[in-house]
Fold each of these.
Amino acid sequence: MHRPEFFHLGSGSSTYKLAEWAQGEMDLEPVVCPADPGHQRPGKRLTDLSVTLPRNSVDDIVWTWCSECLLTDRVLELFRAAGLTGFEVKPVKARYERADTEPPRLWELVVTGWAGMAPPDSGIKLIRHCEVCGIKVYSGPTDLEHVISPSQWDGSDFFIVWPMPKFVFITDRVVQAIRDNGLAGAMIEPPEAMRFSPDDTIGGGRLSYWMPEQRARELGEPLGIY
Ligand SMILES: [Zn+2]
């Protein structure tokens, strides 16, 4: 069987192109912990994305400060035509910060593909857990070669690994679609090249913050992360 190669799709290190959440236009469900006020935090986003774009043009693939990945119509059509799997899209409201012209239509990439929980070999460990509100904080990975466990991968071209829902992983089929079409705005690297510092913590929230309701329930309920 062809063993696919996996990559991380990200925005790269430069931040000047990153889109910002439009102030006051998005609602987040607050999570309040009856046991510890320090656990209060924003939960699930209740509204579609609304963003401002810092430049007067956009790449084919656009990223926000919160790691959301946005696609133009062209990219969405190319991904669909290539038969890529493991994603849905949600509409995005976008405007340029400094121009009166309309930006091209953008779609938020919602990853539905899944490669389960990061295996213990990755070095990701649960470091804090509250039984009352369910907050879970993990240490960042120390062995990036083992973040993705191929045996848990569902075969999707776009997928996430728990508890790293902000990191979009892709197959070489996606890499090929991006390269063949010269799409701008994507940084592609092997998982081993991702950078974490020893103090980094990651927290996945709940799977329902990231995936469509039904998919989140089906995957997350047995694992206690729905
Ligand atoms: Zn709590």
Amino acid sequence: MSRVPYVGLQIAASGSRVSAADIVACVVHEVSSGRLAPGGRLPPVRVLEKQLGLSKNTAAAAYDELMARGIVIGREREGVFIAAARSSFEATAIEPPPLPELSAPALPRAVRPGSLSLSEVFIDPALLPTAKLAECARSVLHRPGLASHYDAQGYPPLRSAIAARLSARGLDVTADEIVITTGSQQSLDIVARSLTRRVVAIESPGYALGKRLFESLQLEVVGLRLDPFAPIDLEQWERQLASHRPALASLITSFHNPTGYSYSSADMLAVLELCRRHQVAILEDDWGSDMLSDGEYRPMLRHYGGKNVLYINSFTKKLLPSLRLGFVVAHPKLVPALLAMKRLSTLGNPWLTEALVAEFLERGYYDGHLAMLQRELDHRYAACLDTLNALMPQDVRWTTPGGGPILWLELPRRVDLGALRAWTVARGVEIGDSDHAFVGEPHLHGFRIGYAFHSAERLRHGLAVLADGIAALSTA
Ligand SMILES: Cc1ncc(COP(=O)(O)O)c(C=O)c1O
């Protein structure tokens, strides 16, 4: 049976120990002063005895006395309650304290359950290696030392395995320079929290939840204009860096979210030079450089800029979203600040998950998995391009990233995006609201298409609905 919690009493002893008379006096005083309201449940006899070290029956004698005086009343199997002045035993209503005032950041709307989301960044769960992960999980559960220990930087064998992987790609990285985080989102969070100058530059459009995160941390967010159909507008970037003097530029260099744009090596060198000239630090959000076929990977800013470039990456999209496992690689001088910030936020993250991913890497499963994944994504990408070519009108354009999970679909201005969204939603198909991704007014007129999440057939269905919508709204 569930019971209401009992009221707390502060019983002072008049002699060397609390007596029955002390208990009676305390309750009488609390009731007459109005602090104990009718209906309040008194501590059970055995609780009082244990708490105060009373000899047996002292508390019971006190309660008997209180009952005899009509101050309390016993209810079978429920306990002893302050008697009601009226006939009710309900506790008198007290004025509740105020709720705290919270401000919720405006976020992109969640996809309605059951609808087909065309702008999904995730990868089809059917392509993820759940059986092999379960195998690794079973093995790490029995590992001695795991259960009782963690540190804020992350499970050392995982950091070593990540350092080895990055080193094999020509990056100079040691395990000590890596901080494991809850997805790369927490990497963005701890870097942003630690910045002393509260101004950050991002591509516009950029990763919407990164932008919102920076804003929620009261950073000024500066937009670096990105048109995925044209080279980077270095003059606009230079003007922004010169006038806002951001502390950091947070850049997505491969298969940029949401446009699919990838920086060329020339872009990277020019951006490094620009940032050096304006003394802007760089964070490379590398969610996609290894999402390429044939074991290939794209160049990274960190290749050219070395250890001063903060580098983040994540296993959430490629391995299993619910692992929420990412990391930041930082110059040794920056690691203590990032670590302190992470400790403040989480104390440490679950080592069990980290050990599981370490095991997965150590067994050599990851490369095989990426190769399989990329073969399938290549197939879906090709099918997506075929469908777009077959269904879209002449004046619809799209980017051709050739890797990663997304591309950008740019529509003619005559198609109202809000009306198109309403049209497709009514037919069970959702398209992303890109406005969240822009700093200021959008200069593009489109949205992300994610081709990694759905089978080629399902994506074709979604794109067919979209093409119908574009046609319907164009003639309207
Ligand atoms: C470019 C980019 N960076 C970072 C993140 C954060 O991802 P996670 O925390 O799952 O690693 C995302 C998520 O979609 C993203 O698209």
